[in-house]
Structure formats: C-alpha cells, structure tokens
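Before relying on records like the one below, remember that each one covers exactly one chain. Contacts with other chains, cofactors or solvent are not represented anywhere in the record.
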Amino acid sequence: MTEFIIPLTAAAAVDAERVGPKAANLAALAQAGLPTPGGFCLGADAYRAQVATLGLEPMVRRFAAADVVEERRLAVEIRLALYEQPIAPSILAPLLAAWCDARTTGAGPSAVRSSALIEDRKGSNFAGQFESFLGIDDEAALLTAVRACWAALWTTTARRGMANHARSPADTAMAVLIQPLVDARASGGGLSETASGGMLISATWGLGSAIAQGEVVPDRIVLSRQGFLRTVDAGRKHHRESCGHGAGAMPQAVPSELVSAPCLDAAQAVTLGRMMRKAEAVVGGPVEIEWALDHLGFKLLQARPLTVEPISVPDEIWRKHPGLSGHPAGIGWGAGRAVVVNCECELPRVAGVVAELGGSTSHLASLARERGIPMVLGVLDATSRIPDGSQVAVDGVAGVVRWMT
C-alpha cells in the first residue's frame, strides 16, 4: 500500500490529521469492537498531491490574503479544477487497486464520503456541508465522486461554514472515505446524551439520508442513560431512500402500514443504546452517531463529539398559549417574531427555528446545536398553523413551540 491509501484496519487510520476525524473515529470504533462497514481512506496527502499536480498551490496561497471578490473567483477556479481535471497517476493507480481489492470481498456498490480534516470535531462538525455519494459501482463514478469530495472543500456553503469558525479552505485538506454501502433496512442517528438526561435515537426506513436531509419525520426513541427504554414515538415516514446503484439514493413510497410503524423493536433500541455508550468511551465524551441496520445487524457509520447544553427555564407566561410539539434539537429557549426562512445562511439572524420535517439527528439539528440555536423539528404544517408575524417561543429542549394569538 502507498501512503495515499490507508485501510481503516491500519494503525494510521486513527490519525485524524491524515484521514480526517470522520474516518479516524470510525477506525477507532472498529478497533474497540464496534461494528462498522470497514473500507479504506484516500488520505489528505492525496488531496495535497493533486493540488500540487494541477498547479493550484499559487492560487491557494493567494486565497489566504484575498479580498471577498478575489476569494470568490479563486474558490471557483480551484473547485472547478479539482472537479474537472484527471486524477494524478500517482494517486489513481493505488486508488483503483485498493477499490478493486475491496470489491473482491463483496460485489456490492460503495459509499464515497468526504472526511475533511476540520469536520466532526467538538464545536465544529460541519454536518451536511461536504459531499457523500452512495451506490458507486463503476470506475468512472468512483473517480467523479472522489474529485467532487475534494472540490467540496471550496464550495460557497463550506467556505461560509469555515468562516464562522475563523477557518479557511487554504489552511486545511480533504481526505475521502470509501466503504461498502450498507443495504439498510432501517437507518438513523442517535444522541448518547440529551439535555434532559437520557439518550435519543432517530429512525426511518431505508437509508438515513431521508433523516439527514430533513425529508421525513423519523421515529423518536428515548432511553435512559442506563439503557432502559422509556418512550417510542413513531414518526411519519411516507418514503424511504434506497440505493440506486450508480444513481445515488432513490426515493420509494413506503407501504401505508409502515408509515407510522416503529422501525426498531425494544431489543434493537436497547442494543443501539449500549453501542452509543461504548462509542462515548472511544470518542471521550457524549457522541452523535449515524447508524444503519441490515440483515446482519447494526453498523455504525459515523460518531462525532456532541456538545450538550443545559436546560434553560422559559418564561412561565408562555405556558398559557397554544403549542405544537416536535423533535427537540437539544438547545435552549428562544423567542421572536414568526417569519418563514428558506436558507440555512439565515440561521445566524434567528432566535429559534421551527421545521416541518426532520428530527433531532438531522443535519439541520446538528447545525443548530453547533451554533446554539433553539430548534424544534418535525412540526407538521407549522408554517400554516403559526400566524406570520406573531410572537413565538421555541423550547429546543422540550420540543415545543408556542405563539401568542
């Protein structure tokens, strides 16, 4: 193996500066005996080598000192070059060899995922701001996905997120995680600790992208910190994502009898709770996980540090007003005037957020926790039921939104 290819079973795979925290955490979970899909990482050195091969280093250096207009122009040029230009032969040969070797043990499609050196760290997880590709089953698609992951470091969304943390794409690098795709019967996320003192699991049918992108209202399963099942609130999962084999995740209608049926039974929920507690020991504190369940059992797909904020005491006057319940993101209390927003770039300007879809482990909820914004998700018809311009209070811990009529 060359220095560019790092199997997740290798000792070097836990080095976050080589493979990014996402891949490093997965390697550490596997080494602790927790189930993961396995796979390998194309290390950050490969990204740096590609930048050098394409002659992009002068533009990267200029970016660090550029004004806003020049930054935008340079970012576009760098992103297009990384996405459109061929992969350097010194990277291409070991990449294809590793991918072909991995496929000899399983002929199924692959998942190709960004593993930036700056993501999945405490206080800066960058949830949903880079790239993931599912159902990769031919060489051309693999190479396109790798180039797109590299280029994702320079998108407007990623640069805006980095700027919020005083970071720059010029000062970091992108590794790429390549794994067997889990043929998921159900998927979701989990929080090993919540502000109310328990553990939380979100679940939906099929691939977890439907939760991550806020396309369904997932099941909400609450356990005690000791792992005992407390409540199961079935969601509204009208469609599921399945592998399109080269076309990424494909939506399918869910049979009517499964729309409001729980995805996990009690024993499965308790098992996943135990895994989250073991993942805490690996990561060194509370974790947010992503998981998938296939015919062989659970696979952990991701584990990132989780910041748990204390419960704030709301103004008692709000309890006299009508409220709607949903999935809490786990952050505090906020109040303000109701207005519909259509882009996450408006999040820094809001006191709280109410979303009609999604759950506590969606990308939007992760961003809310990271930025300290109270949020309640999965509140059906919120934009029509809450009068525009009314005064609204969002309890991001209890999962309740109230308004003054």
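The first helix runs from residue 16 to 31.
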